[in-house]
């Protein structure tokens, strides 16, 4: 279980994350919902040591996490909005590079792991292709696989549908649900209500760096009026 | 894999070149040899034929080496590098048809001139001949930089003087029309007219002028000067220098 | 106008000089690119003092003629006790000169590599050095290869300045023959042709290299 306690992050004088607390269990999906600039991406970035933490604590299975070591220990992984794949490497190399150079695996073992993962995500024949030859959906799968290969406990996905064709939303939701089923702690930052509708998760609505309302997704969609702020947000987005 | 092969072959090539160049023995100052600096672009004093360095100065310096019982190591450099290199001592003797002047004598030592003849000449094209220094007023004149002609013409007012690197460059300026007049010593243009026809050119001597050449010696190796002078005096006395001048058609 | 007999007689010596030209340009380029990449990486970093030092270096080199750098290497180094053979003095000057230009070329290449990839690499656990070596530099080099190729070709031409300190490269070999024969036109035409052959061959080669490296990178 991932526990975030009173996390506060300041950029200059602005509090971009204000006393954030939430828990996510293994196999659960937590969705950080909100419009641009509320801090949902920032939270994911802080967890991945891409921004300085500030105040607060993060626990994994009751053990306190030092966020500065999170990359090396491969505790938390990140799938970026723009995928950030390594353009000069083949699909397979995108996966094996970290395995070989960071985890010091032999090339053979790294190759095996890569092939297994590529196969289970429908990219088996693309091993020798280059990133530029992949479709948007394939790129995202590669980005996920690249992170998975290192076996993190927590996977963060930042705006997973924004760079893709809206028709792929169902597929992305399915993939995210799959990740949870495999036992990962899954955190998703998004403003895409269509994606939200297809996920079985805990929704945390954010505004001005704070979580202003939380709800179980099933409960919310069955009884929207009970969650006024969430409902306002979802309705507002749907109107737009 | 391919990238590694390319990178490796580049490094191997570089190392081969480096070792080859490093194996060329650098000319260092040592007790049994003398480093002589020259610019082999000045026939008949020093020039290269079929890759061999020859000329009056070359023969002379080899004779001096024999006289001093030291090996002569000749270093070829461009003319304006000669004096600075001699000042820092990486060249001990300059044998490059150099004219001794007061300014130069402040930076290096000179032997007594071994050549003090061969008057200066005015060279012009036959269709526009000029014969006297007075006639040069207002004309475009070209001289070889730092030659005796340069020093002479620099003192004359009212002329447009251009200095070029070598005799050959000056000649080209004259034939191409960029200069009207080329002033040089008779000795330096003699080889010119062995190769090119004299009929297109007019040569007039400037009376009362002469070219003088001396050997330069580094102040850091000043002890060599009297020894060299002694050998020079000997060669002058026993007629060797006269014979050399005849060989190279200097007067 | 052109004495072809003279040219054919002189060809062996001119080609020998051309070989030296290639050596100077090649080694100068190699050292220049190595040192320049190192400087470019540092210049893209966050240490303000180092950035300032490198900026000063670049301004100094780019603001003064290469001829001066060669003269400096020839005269000043011996005063400091370092007596290099002429060939290496020329290489030292040319390398340091080239490194200044290359550092800025590399720096621009590095900034063209998306910072997103650097972030992704960070989350995967790569160290800064690993990110530079495996992710940033390979892509930066691909991007700036045309500019680097240009630098090499420029060095082939600039190596002619080494003739001033007596290095027996192509220009000097030509000059010596010209002084003896008084035929500047024939010799300089031959010299120019040889330079042209060298630079053009290299241009074609670099073009091909570029095409091969970029066949799977769409812009």
Can you offer a commentary on this structure?
The complex is a heterotrimer of chains A (240), B (251) and C (219). With 240 residues, chain A is an alpha/beta fold. Chain A has one domain: P-loop containing nucleotide triphosphate hydrolases (Rossmann fold, 3-Layer(aba) Sandwich), CATH 3.40.50. Chain A has eight helices and ten strands. In chain A, the strands form two sheets. In chain A, strands 6-7-8-3-9-10 form a six-stranded mixed beta sheet, with helices on both faces. A four-stranded antiparallel beta sheet of chain A has the order 2-1-4-5, covered by helices on one side. Chain A starts with a strand and ends with a helix. A five-stranded mixed beta sheet of chain B has the order 4-1-5-12-6, with helices on both faces. A five-stranded mixed beta sheet of chain B has the order 9-8-10-7-11, with helices on both faces. Chain B has two domains: 120 residues, 3-Layer(aba) Sandwich (D-Maltodextrin-Binding Protein, domain 2), CATH 3.40.190.10; 86 residues, D-Maltodextrin-Binding Protein, domain 2 (3-Layer(aba) Sandwich). The N and C termini of chain B lie far apart (70 Å). By secondary structure, chain B is an alpha/beta fold. Chain C has 219 residues and is an all-alpha fold. At the B-C interface, helix 1, strand 2, helix 3, helix 6 and helix 7 of B face helix 1, helix 3, helix 4 and helix 7 of C.
- Estimate the helix proportion of chain C, in percent: over 70%
Which class of secondary structure composition applies to the elements of chain C? Answer: mainly alpha
CA radius of gyration of chain C: 21 Å
Q: Helical segment tally of chain C?
A: 8
**Can you write the helix and strand succession of chain B as a string?**
HEEEHEHEHEEEHEHEHEEHH
CATH uppermost class of the largest domain in chain B = Alpha Beta
Q: What is the CATH homologous superfamily assignment of chain C?
A: MetI-like
User: Strands across the major sheet of chain B, in which order?
Assistant: 4-1-5-12-6
**Radius of gyration of chain B over alpha carbons?**
21 Å
- Oligomerization state of this entry? heterotrimer
Ranges of chain C where pLDDT stays below 50 over 5 or more residues in a row are none
Percent of sequence in beta strands of chain B: 15-25%
Q: Quick one: CATH superfamily of the largest domain in chain B?
A: Periplasmic binding protein-like II
